[in-house]
Design goal:
The protein is an alpha+beta fold and about 260 residues long. About 20% of the residues lie in helices and about 30% in strands. Strands 1, 2, 3, 5, 6, 7, 10 and 11 form an eight-stranded mixed beta sheet that branches. InterPro entries: Fumarylacetoacetase-like_C, Fumarylacetoacetase_C_sf, Hydratase-Decarb/MhpD_sf.
């Protein structure tokens, strides 16, 4: 995938700060001058693209919306932050460890230039139980303006993907029951919970969005669709397990 990383000069200092933190060349950002905060979603996406250009191939996306009518927002994900069920992730991989329950979809086929609801959904091969780890290049989560956090890969740390459920068109996310446990202690249990409503809407929107950013959906792309549970921040040496009644289980150990 080719990233368009043209960036206005006014945003370059912020983007460079994010890059430096990612490369462990700088401490996390404790504060951000108002002049460096992106003023629009488009500006935040430009910062994402600039930083992503140094992070290797894009292998996935996170996408979400605040409610069923809101315009979604997105961030590209890279191979180094995608893990399989049962992964053990090293202690120094994160600064913060906010665990969230999510549904993720995998595209078995690329989405071509003809982007319609039918062509996009026909390219999806499976839905998966997933755990996203919330992290940030800022000193503290949720400490900055929302567009600053959007620019910071929407606070993505890692995504752990559970087994494939291939009969995904018969799966109803809004009625799926899950239980999340942290160190075997139940911390969240509910049915559904994604504020975006129809998750297929997110997939169709993302296909157009990704293509417009020069990163069209390719075969094998994983898309996670937003939190069901909210984030629970956990310490080192924590085991996280989520059991879905239809999709099965996914787990991770955060060393």
């Amino acid at each position: 995938m080719t990233l368009n990383h043209n960036l206005p000069g006014s945003l370059q200092p912020f983007a460079q700060k994010l890059q430096a933190v990612r490369k462990a060349e700088s401490a996390p950002i404790s504060s951000l001058a108002a002049s460096l905060v992106p003023e629009t979603k488009e500006a935040a996406y430009a910062v994402q693209n600039f930083v992503a250009s140094s992070m290797g191939p894009v292998k996935g996306w996170k996408v979400g919306a605040s409610d069923a009518l809101a315009e979604p927002s997105a961030a590209p994900l890279h191979g180094e932050t995608l893990f399989s069920d049962g992964a053990v992730i090293a202690a120094d991989f994160f600064r913060h460890r906010g665990v969230e329950v999510e549904f993720a979809y995998r595209f078995d086929r690329a989405v071509g230039a003809d982007i319609t609801r039918e062509t996009v959904l026909a390219a999806v091969g499976s839905v998966h139980p997933a755990i996203e780890i919330v992290d940030t290049r800022f000193a503290q989560p949720a400490s900055q303006a929302p567009l600053a956090h959007m620019a910071d890969q929407q606070s993505h740390g890692a995504l752990i993907l559970g087994p494939a459920f291939t009969d995904w068109t018969a799966f109803d996310p809004s009625h799926e029951h899950f239980v999340m446990r942290v160190d075997h202690r139940r911390v969240s249990e509910q049915v559904g919970g994604n504020a975006a409503g129809d998750l297929s809407r997110l997939l169709v929107w993302l296909a157009g969005h990704a293509a417009a950013r020069g990163m069209p959906i390719e075969a094998g792309t994983v898309v996670t669709t937003g939190s069901l549970s909210g984030a629970f921040f956990v310490p080192h040496r924590t085991h996280v397990n989520v059991r879905f009644y239809t999709l099965g289980e996914v787990s991770v150990f955060l060393a």
